[in-house]
Automatic annotation (TrEMBL):
It is an enzyme of class 2 (transferase). GO terms for biological process: methylation. Residues 165-519 form the FAD dependent oxidoreductase domain. The keyword Oxidoreductase applies. InterPro entries: FAD-dep_OxRdtase, FAD/NAD-bd_sf, SAM-dependent_MTases_sf, tRNA_S-uridine_synth_MnmC_C. Keywords: Cytoplasm, FAD, Flavoprotein, Methyltransferase, Multifunctional enzyme, Oxidoreductase, S-adenosyl-L-methionine, Transferase, tRNA processing. GO terms for molecular function: tRNA (5-methylaminomethyl-2-thiouridylate)(34)-methyltransferase activity. Its EC number is 2.1.1.61. The keyword Cytoplasm applies. This is FAD-dependent 5-carboxymethylaminomethyl-2-thiouridine(34) oxidoreductase MnmC. PANTHER family: SARCOSINE DEHYDROGENASE-RELATED, TRNA 5-METHYLAMINOMETHYL-2-THIOURIDINE BIOSYNTHESIS BIFUNCTIONAL PROTEIN MNMC. Pfam families: DAO. It comes from the Bacteria. It comes from Massilia aerilata.
Length: 557
């Protein structure tokens, strides 16, 4: 059986490889695909790899038709969490894996999917046969060939969408949506009420990029890790930090709050689960040697972290869109309407400025004024950053953070902040400024730091959901809700999607969430475990509200 059999006549070919190893198999497969004049336009390889942090990792490729996902998980866990339709399975290195993966493998198999095996045990072959794989005679005794011939009904693939979209909002969420869609051949119209990009929460001088660490590796930690690692890889494709993107990959030192907090962090570090290049625990002497300042309880050093100007990330992403992007700036407040299977966006004078079958709300707190999104439990949280003259604070070698953060100076200014206020005032507040300075002094262990710093800074409004997780996916239709208890059954608005709720982590959430949404729109394999995709679904709040209304005796399904 030739690899070419799997992709001939296909618009997209998806391959699952049970062992990535050193990548040689992937490179051979990609070379065969490149040299085949009858190849599918897209080759998507999903491979298990044991050398990465846990979870799904999308690795950007130079060729737009080639996608690589590396999954750091057992084959059972990977297949059970995979959202894909696989055309070719390469099963090898599974002698110790048991046979339990067969059912999950059949779940993701495309009709007539092909299987190439090596060293499969008799029990594994029997389990695959029970799930509908028909094995063929093979001249080499250690190798197996099969095709999927199950008669069980397969859910039909959704039709491919018309590749035209409107993106509402030119902050970092909207810019990322434009870039990820244009990269897939979509024609996108970007609509922004301001005269240029990144004029609201994305307009800060510096945003911090760093992962989360937790003892139980909870959902926020796993999601943030996936977004952070994707951002690092994706930014390199856009020109890199210090190149197309203004900022520094100088590292971030997150100080422990107190001795008790430090003890918990030591236990996480002692588990050995985190490689030093991702997160390294520094005890007091190491932290103080790096910082040149007191660090009495130590802290986490995130060597790959740092700061970037969000506006420069927006500029790099919009520049990458090329001629497929049309930009409509300065349109003021807008209204949306669904007319004849198209979304129309009109300016404050009622003039239609964009029309397309797909509309993506990426306008942060502004989405709260859109009637279709107004029932979502979103909050606009005020954040004030203080701009401190460089001579009033130490020249830090890294970003320093705990409850607040302080960046190394850039252009003569260090950024300190930021507050979290339920306050609609867009003007600089002396009280918020003093709060930032007090936290800065705590970080530096210097009660006299930045004394007399002038009232300078910036106010932005973050869009925050109750669980502090983003909203990525199709919007629920609140006017058509029934009694469903499953996300997949919640009625949705046709062609209306959300990229909202990034809170204070929009810098790393943006590209990765846009990649997830673009994959959903295209019907591609998703770059994230299905349980985590569900955790981001905007309709999650529909089910939570219903369960809450039933009271504490209700059973969640």
């Amino acid at each position: 059986m030739d690899y070419r059999d799997a992709w001939h006549g296909q618009a997209r070919c998806t391959v699952f490889d049970a062992a990535y190893g050193d990548g040689a198999g992937f490179r051979v497969l990609a070379d065969v695909w490149r040299t085949d004049p009858h190849r599918s336009p897209h080759l998507h390889v999903i491979a298990l790899s044991s050398l990465l942090l846990p979870g799904f990792h999308r690795i950007p490729q130079a060729e737009p038709g080639l996608t690589l996902d590396l999954l750091s998980a057992t084959i059972d866990d990977a297949l059970s969490q995979l959202s894909a339709r696989v055309d070719l399975f390469r099963l090898h290195g599974l002698e110790q894996a048991g046979a339990g993966f067969a059912r999950a493998l059949a779940r993701v198999a495309a009709p007539q999917a092909r299987l190439l095996g090596q060293g499969l045990t008799p029990a594994q072959v029997a389990a695959l046969q029970a799930q509908g794989f028909v094995f063929e005679a093979c001249a080499e005794p250690d190798k197996q060939k099969a095709h999927f011939a199950s008669r069980k009904p397969r859910p039909p693939l959704p039709p491919l969408p018309e590749r035209r979209a409107i993106v509402l909002g030119a902050g970092i969420a909207g810019s990322a949506a434009c870039e990820r869609l244009c990269a897939r051949g979509w024609d996108v119209t970007l609509v922004e009420r301001h005269p240029r990009p990144a004029m609201e929460a994305s307009g800060n001088r510096a945003g911090i990029f760093m992962p989360l660490v937790s003892r139980d590796d909870n959902i926020p930690t796993r999601l943030t890790r996936a977004a952070y690692l994707y951002a690092l890889r994706h930014w390199e494709r856009l020109g890199g930090i210090g190149g197309a993107i203004e900022g520094q990959a100088c590292g971030v030192l997150q100080l422990a709050r107190d001795p008790g907090h430090a003890e918990v962090q030591r236990a996480i570090a002692a588990s050995g689960a985190l490689p030093a290049e991702f997160a390294e625990w520094l005890e007091q002497p190491q932290a103080e040697s790096l910082l040149g300042l007191p660090a009495p309880d130590g802290g986490w050093l995130f060597r790959q972290g740092g700061w970037a100007r969000p506006g420069s990330v927006c500029e790099a992403m919009l520049a990458a869109c090329g001629g497929r992007l049309q930009q409509r700036f300065g349109v003021g407040n807008v209204a949306i309407a669904y007319v004849e299977r198209h979304w129309e966006v009109s300016d404050q004078h009622g003039v239609i400025v964009a029309r397309a079958p797909t509309l993506i709300l990426a306008n942060g707190a502004g989405a709260m004024q859109v009637p279709h999104a107004a029932p979502l439990p979103l909050t606009a949280m005020r954040g004030q950053v203080s701009h401190v003259p460089a001579g009033m604070v130490p020249a830090l070698p890294v970003v320093l953070c705990r409850e607040a953060y302080l960046t190394p100076p850039a252009h003569g200014v260090a950024s300190a902040g930021a507050t979290y206020d339920v306050d609609g005032d867009p003007e600089l507040s002396p009280a918020s400024h003093e709060e930032n300075l007090q936290r800065l002094r705590g970080l530096l262990s210097d009660p006299q730091a930045a004394q007399g710093a002038p009232l300078q800074g910036r106010v932005g409004f973050r869009c925050i959901a109750p669980d502090r997780l983003p909203l990525v996916g199709r919007l629920p239709d609140f006017g058509a809700l029934g009694t469903t208890e499953r996300l997949r059954d919640v009625p949705r608005h046709p062609g209306l999607y959300a990229l909202l709720g990034y809170a204070s982590r929009g810098l790393i959430w943006a590209g990765w969430a846009a990649e997830l949404l673009a994959a959903q729109l295209e019907g591609e394999p998703l770059p994230l475990e299905s349980a985590l995709v569900d955790a981001l679904d905007p309709a999650r709040f529909v089910l939570r509200a219903r369960r809450t209304s039933r009271g504490p005796q209700a059973t969640d399904i």
